[in-house]
Amino acid sequence: MENNPVRILIVEDDMIIGANLSIQLTSLGYEVTAIIPRGEEAIMHIREQSPHILLMDINLKGSLNGIETVKIIQKAKDIPIIYLTANSDDATFEKAKETQPKAFITKPFNKVSLQRTIALVVEQLKESKETIDNEQQIEVLDDRIFVRHNGRMEKLLLDDILYIEADRNYCTLITQKVNHILTCTLKVMQEKLPSTSFVRVHRSYIINISKLDVLADGHLEIGRKVIPIGKSHKGLLLNRIRTI
């Protein structure tokens, strides 16, 4: 998705509106996979083309309206939905909400509203993909962790980890012999590792508490590494030390 344009399917039975949407989206750098007027055709198209986002008119003509079409699609595929609607009555809105759409765009739409709405959904897609990628890089089993390296999962004993240092969306697992760099946030690491052994002591550090050598007022030491202690993390660290 980073190197290829985001692919959007437009399901709209007013072809003038559909064409206008397509022109606007294309000018914003998105790829429109098709403009489809009927729900049945949309179901087939999504099976065959797998667009990233579905722009769906609620009030489709034909045997299936937009909400019914989405419900069928969602049984087979998880795709972000943005509803197009000129009908803002409460009953329709509540039915649409049941399908958990990412957004609603009210007709007549304007380019700025369309641009911002699509941009927000695309950002959510990227975050979702990063989360999945992060989850796939790490697997924790009892006393060991498996990390993805050069296309394969390599074993690392938890007891060998001294501490973990974060730099934005990267984490470095520090051991005495080798360091492992993962495309992963510190929050993901914190959720994966057992809290009995690993404690977050700073926005950028998690430590293996059994490796702690020195505890001072505002920092700690593991080996020769000086690690700061964040004020919000100090209480938890002290409580954990007392229970060792």
Explain how this protein is built.
- The protein has 244 residues and is α/β, with parallel strands linked by helices.
- Strand 14 and strand 15 form a beta hairpin.
- The chain has helices at residues 15-27, 39-49, 66-76, 90-97, 111-137, 186-192, 231-242, and strands at residues 7-11, 31-36, 53-57, 81-85, 103-106, 138-141, 144-149, 152-157, 161-167, 170-175, 179-183, 198-202, 205-208, 214-215, 219-222, 225-228.
- 36% of the residues lie in helices and 32% in strands.
- The model has no long low-confidence stretch (mean pLDDT 88).
- The protein is built from seven helices and 16 strands.
- Helix 2 packs parallel to helix 3 (66-76).
- The protein folds into two domains: 7-134, Response regulator (Rossmann fold), CATH 3.40.50.2300; 142-242, Beta Barrel (OB fold (Dihydrolipoamide Acetyltransferase, E2P)), CATH 2.40.50.
- 27% of the residues are buried.
- The chain starts with 6 loop residues before the first strand and ends with a helix.
- The chain has a five-stranded parallel sheet with strand order 2-1-3-4-5, with helices on both faces. Strands 11-10-9-13-12 form a five-stranded antiparallel sheet.
- The longest helix is centred in the middle third of the chain and has 27 residues, at 111-137.
